[in-house]
Every structure is written in structure tokens, then in C-alpha cells.
Amino acid sequence: MEQNIEIEQALHNIQQLVGNIEKVIRGKRHQIELILTALLAKGHILMEDNPGTGKTVMAKTLAHSISGQKAGSEVNFKRIQFTPDLLPMDLIGSHIFDDVRKEFVFKKGPLFCNVLLADEINRASPKVQSALLECMAENQITIGETTYPLEQLFFTIATQNPVEMEGTYPLPAAQLDRFFLKIYFGYVDEATELDIYKDYLGIQNNMQHVHQVLSMDEILLLQQETEKVYLHDELITAVRNIVWDTRKHPDIVLGASTRSGITFLKCLKAFALVNGRTFATEDDLKRITTAVLDHRLIYRNKEAKQKALAGILDKELDRLSKLKIDRQ
């Protein structure tokens, strides 16, 4: 009985968080769900799109919706604007000489936070991009011989401009693999955009008065509840089949890794919880496959990128559908 109460509270908390974000971010329900999926799966998310679609506002709204450990305080939110002249020490921090103590002391950089907005990450050089690798993968930063642990809640929301834009550096495969999900924020539909224009002052006011609906501890508890979400063996098999098929497909040069499959399972659990369930379904598989796997694959050409993964997914959904018929 107590476990049911915990689950019900968890589901209620998620809906509170979604509703709070939607006061500012209009017409982006699926994108909000995917961002929270990455958060609850203890991962990170990459958002790609043209400037002006609301990516930065989304990150700020999420951070302002979570309270810190002290009553009334917000979680430690940092924003880094990536530029070509940025250095790794601008992210990690550096040693500064202390005149009083007569020794070098480490001054922590903006990576030591709870929610990090890495804005336009592909405008910085690959050397700077790689500074994020250890902290995203292992929740720690090593400088010299000293390793500094990051906060228990550490969530990176990175944005990037389309790689065709001038002055961008494509993220290497190792960096992309650290992001659990990659989504395209996209423009809203015509009706929603008209509503935004009519009420843009009200939306700005909402941004300034976003309520803290959940505490950091409640987010950590949600992450624990996510691990308890039930996955049927056939869904696990489906993930294995999709991962294997990406390695054998003639139009895919580099397929998904075993780590990709584990990430896929974690995201399935989190996406189910975000959608109010304690079990994952075939529909969950359908709705998150592209966001989880597409950025981890290297295709032969643009035509293959549009068709290869979709074909693999359709094949697996068809198999699951036949299994369901056979069981009835």
C-alpha cells in the first residue's frame, strides 16, 4: 500500500512539473516529456534547432521549477554561452594564487552546478566540447591528480545550431553518445504561434514568476522510482533487435553500441513514468526510438538517414504486433 502511495505521488509530481513548464513553453508537450525523460533517466539531452525556437527559455523554466536544498532557494543553475574563443578552464575552473594562504586554490567553474545550460555547444572548439565528457559520463571532474565529485543532481541541457550554419563544429561521436536523447525543438503550429503573439507579455510575466513545484530531493526520488518501472521481456528483446539491426543495415556505417541499448532501456522506463505509467508499452518504444538512437548512428547519405532507422523500427513494431495477436 505504501509503495502505491509513493508511485501515485511520483506521478502527481511529474504532472505538476509538466504543467508548470507549459505555462511558459506553449505547444511543446512531447519535447517537454522527452526532456523530463532524460532528467529522470539520469542522463543529459541535446536540443538542435534554429535560434529563436525557445530552447534556452525551456532550460531556464525547468531550473526555476525546482527548489534547492535550502527553503525558498533554487537549484544551482548555470548557463554557458559557447563561443570559438572559449577555453576548457572557462568551464571546469582554474587554480588561483591565494595571497593570504600563499598557495594555489581551485576556483570551481560553472560545471559545478545542478542544471547546466550549454548554449550553442557546437560553436566551441572540439577541445572545449571534450571538457564536458567526464562530467556527463561519470559525474565528476578530474584536474591534475585531484578528482572533484559533482552534485548528485547534475543535468545538462545542451543546445546546438544546425551543423550547416556557419561557424559550427560538429560534435564528435564520443560526445554525442553521452547525450541520452537528441531532439529537434521545432516551431509551434500556426494556431499556437498566434496565441503566443497575442499573449507574449503574459508569457514573459510567467517566466519571471515560475513556481518551484518540486524540490531537488523529490527529483532524486523520481529518479529512483524510474528504475522500478516494469519492462516486459519482449520490449527488452525489441531493443536488442533494433540495436543489432542498426549494425547490420547496409545504409548505416556505424550502428548503435551496447551502451546505447542500456540507455534505450533507461529512457523507456523514464518515458513511461513521465506519461503516468509504471510499465512501458510498444507506443513508448515507437515515440522515443529516433530521439535515443538517431544521433548515435552514422549513415551513408541523407536519404538513408530519413529511411533506415524508421524501417528498422517498423519491422520490430510489426513483430511485437504479431506477438500480441498470437497471445490473444
TrEMBL record:
Domain ATPase AAA-3: 44-181
InterPro entries: ATPase_AAA-3 (IPR011703), CbbQ/NirQ/NorQ/GpvN (IPR050764), ChlI/MoxR_AAA_lid (IPR041628), P-loop_NTPase (IPR027417)
A single MF term (Gene Ontology): ATP binding
Any Pfam family matching the protein: AAA_lid_2
Domain of life according to the entry: Bacteria
Record-annotated ChlI/MoxR AAA lid domain positions: 246-306
PANTHER family: METHANOL DEHYDROGENASE REGULATOR, MOXR FAMILY PROTEIN
Protein name per its UniProtKB record: MoxR-like ATPase
Organism: Filimonas lacunae
